[in-house]
Amino acid sequence: MRFRISKQNDGTAYSIVVTGELTDDTAWDILQIAQTMLGMAQCRELVIDLRSAVLDEELSVFNTDILVSVFEEGLLKKDSSLVLRFRDESEIRLCSDQLPLEARPLFANVPLDEAKFYGRALKWLEQEARFLVN
Predict the structure, then answer these.
(1) At what angle do helices 64-77 and 24-38 cross, to 10 degrees?
(2) In contact, 50 and 31? CB cutoff 8 Å
(3) Residue 81, SS3?
(4) What pLDDT, on the 0 to 100 scale, is given for residue 79?
(5) Residue 62 burial (CB < 10 Å; 0-12/13-18/19+)?
(6) Structural contact between residues 30 and 48, judged by C-beta atoms closer than 8 angstroms
(7) CA dihedral 119, 120, 125, 127 (to 10 degrees)
(8) Where are the alpha helices (DSSP H) in 3-111?
(9) What is the dihedral of CA 81, 89, 52, 48, to 10 degrees?
């Protein structure tokens, strides 16, 4: 098994082109390398191209359950995607499709009379909740 790593000019998309025969052990090696690459800050898209590779018939590594368990944490940390391309021109695409969440402020700017109104309502709800417990 051999592989070649390349990147686009802007450095956000990487690809791993695999050639030769893939067994379970070598496929796990590729997944470990891919997991590390997807974890890099600048990597937004990673393509694992298996079209030139000969897959062993008993190869069980490239199913969706294993791919999700390996790449789930990396995909949830940032907006990124993973694409596996196979010989029969099919592909598996895992995308986070989320941008990092912005931190929300703890307090909102409201007029004083509005704050007093909602403060009274919250006190009333708090008192009603105490009555429900007893």
Answers:
(1) 20
(2) no
(3) strand
(4) 85
(5) middle
(6) yes
(7) 120
(8) 24-38, 64-77
(9) 0
- In a structure prediction context, what are the per-residue pLDDT tens digits for the chain, which is 134 residues long? 899 999 888 888 999 999 999 988 899 999 999 999 998 888 899 999 999 999 888 888 888 889 989 998 888 888 889 999 998 889 999 988 766 556 666 666 778 888 788 788 777 777 766 666 55
Residue type, 85: R
Whole-prediction pTM: 0.69
Contact predicate 79/97, CB 8 Å: yes
Q: CB-hemisphere CA count at 13 Å for 66?
A: 11
CATH class of 2-102: alpha beta
Interatomic CA distance for residues 97 and 63, integer angstroms: 21
What pLDDT does 127 receive?
A: 74
Show me where the domains of the chain are located: 2-102
